[in-house]
TrEMBL record:
It comes from the Bacteria. Residues 58-228 form the Glycoside hydrolase family 31 N-terminal domain. Signal peptide: none annotated. It comes from Mucilaginibacter aquariorum. Keywords: Glycosidase, Hydrolase. The lineage of its organism: Bacteria, Pseudomonadati, Bacteroidota, Sphingobacteriia, Sphingobacteriales. The keyword Hydrolase applies. Pfam families: DUF5110 (PF17137), Gal_mutarotas_2 (PF13802), Glyco_hydro_31_2nd (PF01055), Glyco_hydro_31_3rd (PF21365). One of its GO terms (molecular function) is hydrolase activity. This is Glycoside hydrolase family 31 protein. Residues 603-689 form the Glycosyl hydrolase family 31 C-terminal domain.
Length: 814
């Protein structure tokens, strides 16, 4: 240093003293990817085992016998443990052993092994039969990000020749993701096209099926993340992110269902919805003024088309200011909502995150005073244009902001609003698309830029909404719907697939998207029936209503510049067919509600793609039209115009055509006629399908009896029925009833047994039992030892009788 100073001050050039060695920039190596070296040490701390190569550290956490989490710290310092997706790790006792030999360290649980290879730090997993299910192809690696600090983090695994991939939440592409390269970055994707990526939600969870064995990878990283399923190199599967920690959960199968259930164990399930939310919902951008809303509501009742929910899109507000009402269009919202409620409608209103910059607007003023709006790195407010004009945006990653936001709903709840629709929460900003990366977030005290918070912003918004509504509505179940989300969003909301298009291609895409969302943790999902933008013709709309009747969430919605789009808008024969399918939706509500319980309580998805039933058949990995609704009803939507018949694959076992009651053997494709009023529906032999009478809205009439549709089977089949109050959280205190039916038939007898568990007593007294597909004519029916006197027989060889809801055993004799 001395020589250099002299140079400047005395202007004496002393060449021989000029050393480059002292240049501090000298010796800095170029930024390159760095790979784990060789593990030379293992240290166990409770359920965690740490491996190091001398500099980097890897943590292996045994979460359960089937779930192992892997984390990487490039220079041995792990980030603080915090996850919006996994609020708490499951508390289960695990037994495991750590072994070391010349080749590897091995962690063994009763279900799986995790191998850490000494030669190169490759991490792999195998099952009890030493079958390797997942293996690194390259050691975990990272690259420094000088701009932001931290690292780009990478994991590359081998991809087997016949390996298939499913999940990843919401992608507008084939159901099987093999060969795809995809990105997770929540994006407002108006009128998205086939193969457009990314869309509105980021679910960094995928399921692999290879050699008939399934496992899952949940890459819990909220930064922009990338997945390559054998796209760039057919022998490799990679996932990487632009920041954060390389942290993933390996979730063992062997069935896809096990993987999905375990993913739910980590990220939670949907709370039980209010029963009305399973009805039909009518939406449009926008129904206004007030009289229009009333006309639409009356239209449903006049046309005798059931409907439970009616939506108010942005035009109900005063200048699009959230939590206000347009005095011109909705002068007396309380009265309107009360009148709608008296007519059986629940009102759902939209609330976006953008808060108009306006010092005369209380929400803006309060948010500003309390410093609740997001700011840029230099402390400027994050401002951008959305519907209200110039807006600022609450930082929903701040728990205090969430609590404030939740309380803002008190007026809406007081006004009678039953549900809230959160939109534009990717977050969407006109022009720029979304927030710039330098926006700062509180991130529940862990701080981060928008790079880290972007993908969770929408989820935290709807969380604030849900938690606020739950508080305001006391013990009533709120209904929420969101466009954006991250893993775990299902704990707070239902989801719709965003701004789709009125085209046959989008009907197909919607079918795939809902199945994909379902296996990715988001069971309560639906599409904009009819397509948001563009004009469907009557046929397309009707086919969409048919599919929508079997979407866990059923809502028709359309953009403001389209023609009227209610189920009766296309005239006959469409109106009658739409009515028939919406009525069918309502008849099957107790079945859907039971499937919802199975989801909520046990982590089963509501829609189950065919591959989930028969993953060992490789041809099923490419089927994407058929799915089951719950586990008993198979649906195959009609996805082409003018289609007079279509082939439907039925998984192995026996099935009944719902319409004709013809029994068909599964394990093959069958051709089914598809006139406009028919969508292929099959019921699994041995099922008990509960049915309610058709009502114009849920709760219109007291249920006097529940119909049980029993389908004959010559093997034993279990079915479930869940019942409770349908609108409170009493189920959390075990106030519900879980009924189990066991159906078993022989050539000359059919037996149905019922058992019950729980503390709820439904008000109806009896069942109306309908026997379908009996291979004989019954001569005697004995229920709990008593012979049934009145049995009616129908021309389609079905038989009906009534009996107490408390029966234990019913025997039907030839
Ligand atoms: C967005 C939503 C759409 C809504 C519109 C107006 O495009 O995705 O559903 O109708 O905004 O609020």
């Amino acid at each position: 240093m001395t020589a250099k100073l002299l140079l400047v001050e005395d202007m004496i050039v002393e060449d021989e003293e000029f050393h480059h060695l002292n240049n501090p920039a000298d010796g800095i190596k170029p930024i390159v990817k760095k790979y784990l070296g060789t593990p030379n040490h293992a240290e166990q701390l409770g359920n965690k085992i740490f491996f190091t190569d001398g500099d980097a550290k890897v943590e292996v956490l045994i979460v359960t016998n089937e779930i192992i989490r892997v984390r990487l710290a490039p220079h041995s310092v792990f980030l603080e443990e915090f996850s919006y997706a996994v609020p708490e790790l499951p508390e289960t006792s695990v037994e495991f052993t750590l072994l070391e030999n010349e080749q590897e360290f091995r962690v063994t649980t009763p279900a799986i092994n995790c191998h850490i290879r000494k030669q190169d730090f490759f991490i792999s997993f195998s099952d009890k039969n030493d079958h390797v299910t997942s293996s690194d192809a390259v050691p975990m690696h990272w690259e420094e990000n000088t701009q932001f600090g931290g690292y780009y983090v990478f994991c590359t695994k081998t991809c087997e020749e016949q390996e298939s991939f499913f999940g990843l939440g919401d992608k507008a592409t084939e159901f099987n993701l093999r060969g795809k390269r995809l990105k997770n970055w929540n994006t407002d994707a108006y009128s998205f096209g086939y193969n457009q990526d990314p869309l509105y939600r980021s679910i960094p969870f995928y399921i692999s099926v290879s050699d008939g064995i399934a496992h899952g990878i949940f890459f819990d990283n909220t930064f922009k993340a990338h997945f390559d399923f054998g796209g760039e190199d057919p022998t490799k599967t990679s996932f990487w992110a632009d920041g954060g920690e390389l942290q993933y959960y390996y979730i063992h199968g062997p069935h896809m269902m096990d993987v999905v259930k375990n993913y739910h164990l980590l990220t939670g399930t949907h709370p039980m919805p209010p029963l009305w939310a399973l009805g039909y919902h009518q939406c449009r951008w926008s129904y206004y003024p007030e009289n229009k809303v009333r006309v639409i509501a009356n239209g449903f009742r006049q046309n005798r088309i059931p409907c439970d929910g009616i939506y108010l899109d942005i035009d109900y507000m005063d200048g699009y200011r959230c939590f206000t009402w347009s005095p011109k269009y909705f002068p007396n919202p309380k009265k309107m909502i009360a009148d709608l409620a008296a007519n059986g409608f629940k009102t759902v209103v939209i609330i976006d995150p953008g808060i108009r910059v306006d010092d005369n607007y209380s929400v803006f003023k309060e948010g500003k005073e309390k410093k609740y709006f997001c700011r840029r790195c230099d402390d400027y407010f994050m401002e951008g244009h959305v519907w209200p004009g110039r807006c600022q945006f609450p930082d929903f990653t701040n728990p205090e902001v969430r609590a404030w936001w939740g309380d803002l709903f008190d007026d809406l709840v007081e006004t009678g609003v039953a549900g809230v629709w959160n939109d534009m929460n990717e977050p969407a900003v006109f022009g720029s698309g979304t927030f710039p990366d330098d926006v700062r977030h509180q991130y529940d005290g862990y701080r981060g830029s928008h790079r880290k918070a972007h993908n969770v912003y929408g989820m935290q918004m709807v969380r604030a909404t849900y938690e606020g509504l739950r508080k305001q509505m006391k013990n009533k179940r709120p209904f929420t719907i969101t466009r954006a989300g991250y893993s775990g969003v299902q704990r707070y909301s239902s989801v719709w697939t965003g701004d789709n298009v009125a085209s046959w291609e989008h009907l197909k895409l919607g079918n795939i998207q809902l199945q994909r969302l379902s296996v990715s943790g988001i069971s309560f999902c639906g599409t904009d029936i009819g397509g948001f933008s563009g004009e469907p013709d009557g046929e397309l709309f009707t086919r969409w209503i048919q599919m929508g009747a079997f979407s866990p969430f059923m809502r028709a919605h359309s953009a403001g510049d389209t023609k009227e789009r209610e189920p009766w808008s296309f005239g006959e024969p469409y109106t009658a067919i739409n009515r028939k399918f919406i009525e069918l939706r309502y008849r099957l509500i107790p079945y859907l509600y039971s499937a919802f319980w199975e989801h909520h309580r046990y982590g089963f998805p509501i829609l189950r793609p065919v591959v989930m039933h028969e993953q060992e058949e490789v041809s099923n990995h490419f089927r994407q039209d058929e799915f089951t609704y719950g586990d008993k009803i198979l649906i195959c939507p009609v996805l082409e115009p003018g289609q007079k018949s279509r082939s439907v694959y039925l998984p192995k076992g026996k099935w009944f055509n719902f319409w004709t009651l013809e029994m068909v053997d599964g394990g093959k494709e069958v051709v089914v006629p598809t006139p406009l009023d028919i969508m292929p529906i099959f019921v699994k032999a041995g099922s008990v399908i509960p049915e309610y009478p058709v009502m114009q809205y849920t709760g219109e009439k007291e249920i006097e009896e529940v119909k049980l549709n029993i389908y004959y089977s010559d093997y034993e089949v279990n079915s479930f029925l869940f019942e409770d109050y349908g609108e409170t959280f009493a189920y959390e205190q075990d106030i519900y009833l879980e009924k189990k039916f066991v159906v078993k038939g022989t050539a000359d007898k059919l037996t149905i047994q019922q058992s019950m568990e729980g503390l709820y007593t439904p008000r109806y007294e009896g069942y109306h039992i309908k026997l379908n597909g009996l291979p004989f004519k019954p001569t005697k029916i004995v229920a709990d030892g008593k012979e049934i006197a009145t049995i009616s027989s129908n021309s389609d060889k079905t038989y009906e009788f009534k009996f107490s809801k408390n029966f234990k055993k019913i025997e039907i004799f030839k």
